[in-house]
Amino acid sequence: MIDHAGIRNILPHRHPILLVDAALELHPFDRIVTVKAVSGSEPCYANMAEGLDPSAFTYPKSLLIESFCQSGAVLWLESIRSRGESLNGTLIFAAAKNVRFHSPVHPGDTVRHRLKIDQLVGDNAFLSGQSFVGDKPVMTIGEAIAVVRPNDGTAHRA
Predict the structure, then answer these.
(1) DSSP conformational letter for 2
(2) Cβ 68 vs Cβ 139: under 8 Å
(3) Looking at the chain, which runs of residues are DSSP E strands?
(4) In angstroms, rounded to a whole number, what is the distance separating the alpha carbons of residues 111 and 106?
(5) Which of 32, 96, 98, 148 has the fewest CB atoms within 10 Å, counting from its CB?
(6) What does the pLDDT look like over 89-137, one tens digit per residue?
């Protein structure tokens, strides 16, 4: 298990965009299970009017995807570190395909992401998995792609 302090040592993200609280399982170069507790004090709920319908407090889908992808970053970075290596660059979320949302997430829910590395090709990782609240699936990602942006200042141009 990796607690929140350990997650902060792995990911460069900080409040309010650090969206992984802990890793419950990690199998290098294979799979990870992480959790994200959704709170009513999240910045996405700031300045909301009083008396809104509960559906107004649905956690944004974009943040759910970001939390999933940060979980993938933890898996990839810790996998590399397990070999005594480091990454020469910054991980960037590039794309997601075949994303399905099954059920909304609300404050008070704890989201559990279960994802795996399907393939590593050079500086690209292909991930897939599901997110749950309890035993109920809330999101499925058929394919997410993460890439490494080099730290040396070079950029690939089309």
Answers:
(1) B
(2) yes
(3) 22-27, 31-37, 89-101, 110-121, 124-133, 136-150
(4) 10
(5) 98
(6) 888 999 999 999 999 999 999 999 999 999 999 889 999 999 999 999 9
Round the CA-based radius of gyration of the chain to a whole number and report it: 16
- Tens of pLDDT, residue by residue over 22-54, are 999 999 999 999 999 999 999 999 999 999 999
Domains and CATH numbers, the chain: 4-150 (3.10.129.10)
Q: What are phi and psi of 68, to 5 degrees?
A: -60, -50
Say how far apart CA 127 and CA 68 lie, in whole Å: 10
Residue 22 structure tokens: 């802990």
At a CB cut-off of 8 Å and minimum separation 6, what does 67 contact?
A: 19, 20, 34, 36, 111, 113, 131
pTM value is 0.92
Helix (H, G, I), strand (E, B) or coil at 102: coil
CB 139 within 8 A of CB 151: no
Spatial contact of 19 and 37, defined as CB atoms under 8 Å apart:
no
77: three-class secondary structure by DSSP: helix
Q: Which amino acid is at 43?
A: P
Confidence band of 154 (pLDDT split at 50, 70, 90): low
